[in-house]
């Protein structure tokens, strides 16, 4: 069971903590086991909103699959940031060095910076703190106008509510965009992936309110490596193929086939990033060989480049 350990520092913002905690708790409700732990440098943690929180003072033993999150705190600048004792700093560095992921929300990036984890990496924080973060940690590259940044298992997010987007992204990476979308729907939030990651991800096709289309997407998500004829998807959703094509396009701006292909490419990219060959990744996601995967990857990169460059 992977752990999500929140390092609680004084004057933390409740939503910086509660947003990501709710995402992982909801995923656990859906059968994706997560154990949430809350540690601090002292037991009683005052919050910016006046509600005290009780934390553990002993860290659990961590595995590389675990996640450590530092929520942010109230303060117009980093000058009044709560101190980070050497043991907390050591724990953050040790977990990352062992292959684990560390993350911050809002001002929590300062704690990662003090631990040396921002040096040589891209990062972000609340828009009101970005200039100060850049001055405080000149070896870091502060990325502006994004919700979150991922760099070598160091994940930083912008202000307060962006912690939800960060957590949904991590759920999507671990369990697929369908599960992240299901969590977002349960929480009644948008499934935004407006971080400094690929913007053409499958999760962006989930920001709609059509229950029929969500059910079809749930089916595709669970069986995207298999052939899924349009007739079968329509029958499962209780509408005609023509109606399904129309409402799917209206809700998502794409077709069921293109949506399935996006899922396959995203999964293949993940496998390749983990060391798989192009051929083995292609077969793992349902292609007979690497030719189609190669074409789809080229098309995806072309679309991404066009989106960045904008119209001529």
Automatic annotation (TrEMBL):
InterPro entries: Class_I_gatase-like, DJ-1/PfpI, Homeodomain-like_sf, HTH_AraC, INH-QAR
Residue ranges constituting the HTH araC/xylS-type domain according to the UniProt record: 214-302
Gene3D superfamilies on file: 3.40.50.880, Homeodomain-like
Database matches in Pfam families: DJ-1_PfpI, HTH_18
Gene Ontology terms for molecular function: DNA-binding transcription factor activity; sequence-specific DNA binding
Keyword Lyase found: no
Superkingdom assignment: Bacteria
SMART domains (alphabetical): HTH_ARAC
Keyword Ubl conjugation in annotation: no
Entry keyword set: Transcription, Transcription regulation
Record-linked PROSITE patterns: HTH_ARAC_FAMILY_2
Transmembrane segments: none
Protein name as catalogued: Transcriptional regulator
């Amino acid at each position: 069971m992977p752990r999500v350990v929140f390092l609680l520092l004084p004057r933390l913002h409740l939503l910086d903590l509660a947003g990501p905690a709710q995402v992982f708790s909801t995923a656990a409700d859906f059968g994706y086991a997560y154990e949430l732990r809350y540690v601090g440098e002292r037991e009683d943690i005052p919050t910016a909103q006046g509600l005290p929180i009780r934390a553990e003072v002993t860290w659990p033993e961590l595995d590389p699959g675990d996640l450590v999150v530092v929520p942010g705190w109230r303060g117009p600048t980093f000058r009044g940031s709560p101190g980070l004792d050497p043991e907390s700093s050591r724990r953050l560095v040790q977990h990352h060095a062992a292959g684990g992921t560390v993350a911050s929300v809002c001002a929590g990036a300062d704690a990662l910076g003090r631990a040396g984890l921002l040096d040589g990496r891209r990062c972000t924080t609340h828009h009101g703190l970005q200039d100060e973060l850049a001055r405080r940690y000149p070896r870091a590259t502060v990325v502006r106008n994004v919700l979150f940044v991922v760099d070598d298992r160091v994940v930083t997010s912008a202000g307060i509510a962006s912690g939800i987007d960060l957590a949904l992204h991590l759920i999507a990476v671990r369990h697929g965009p369908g599960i992240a979308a299901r969590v977002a729907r349960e929480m009644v939030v948008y499934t935004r992936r407006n971080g400094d990651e690929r913007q053409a991800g499958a999760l962006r096709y989930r920001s709609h309110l059509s229950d029929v289309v969500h059910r079809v997407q749930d089916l595709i998500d669970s069986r995207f490596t298999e052939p899924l004829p349009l007739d079968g998807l329509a029958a499962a959703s209780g509408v005609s193929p023509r109606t399904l094509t129309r409402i799917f396009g209206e809700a998502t701006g794409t077709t069921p086939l293109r949506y399935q292909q996006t899922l396959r490419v995203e999964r293949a990219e993940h496998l390749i990033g983990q060391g798989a060959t192009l051929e083995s990744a292609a077969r793992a996601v349902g292609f007979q060989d690497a030719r189609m995967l190669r074409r789809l990857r080229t098309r995806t990169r072309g679309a991404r480049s066009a989106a960045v460059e904008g119209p001529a």
